Amino acid sequence: MVQDPLRKDGSTMLLPDSKTVLVEHSNKKVYDLGDKIAKVFNANKPASDVFNEALNLARVAESGIRTPKPLEVSAVEGEGWALLTEKVPGVTLADRMSAEPSKFYEHLEQFVDLQVEIHGNRSPLLNRQRDKYARMINELPHINATTRYNLLERLDGMKKEFQICHGDFNPSNVIVAEDGQLYVCDWAHATQGSPAADAAMTYLLFALNDKQQADAYLELYCDRADVPMQVVRQWMSIVAAAELSRKRTDVNDEFLMSWIDVVDYMG
């Protein structure tokens, strides 16, 4: 039996010296290992979260959505837990948009069509979106009990749907493969739920950087998905609260709070 070069013993992974960093955040690093991708979390990341992301990825792949296949979850020598996936050679759609600003709307059409395609699938074993949002809202210390109640009431009144939702769908999570096919990565926040909620999250992620691009996205999504813009907007206070609870260092809390503050206005 040939020993795996990534394996120190039967339980701990060693990353090769040839690895290169693709992305670095406060809680994780993503490495290119040549023929595989390793997402390595810091020691504070619960193992259950990493295994859950791998499970989400497996369930989404089984539904037929194009995504890098999960290969392994393992502890990494000297670090935390890691999720190892296959590598899809290519560039992100975010890189394409940045490199070709004159083709932004062409790339945006690809992006929206892919999201609508994802929303056409189901995976009954994924976590439920409304349960996740309710838990996240209840854990928010930033807002008072009255606002939390309003948000939970709004959530409870939304139409119950069960489509696959990415939960963090943005161009940096779309890979344009060398053959032109689009693949979707980073399914940590995947749920079964409302496509309009997923679109609301994508709108907010665009709006954090560029309001004009966010508005263009929303108009195109609602046209292609045949969803009233008002329905997507009804979700925005809820998804803003959920995003706030994630405590991401690269997201403007004041911007998210401004969307939560309009909950009564939007009612």
TrEMBL record:
Transmembrane segments: none annotated. One of its GO terms (molecular function) is transferase activity. InterPro entries: Aminoglycoside_PTrfase, CcrZ_PhaseVar_Mediator, Kinase-like_dom_sf. Residues 30-224 form the Aminoglycoside phosphotransferase domain. Keywords: Transferase. The keyword Transferase applies. It comes from the Bacteria. This is Phosphotransferase enzyme family. It comes from Collinsella stercoris DSM 13279. The lineage of its organism: Bacteria, Bacillati, Actinomycetota, Coriobacteriia, Coriobacteriales.
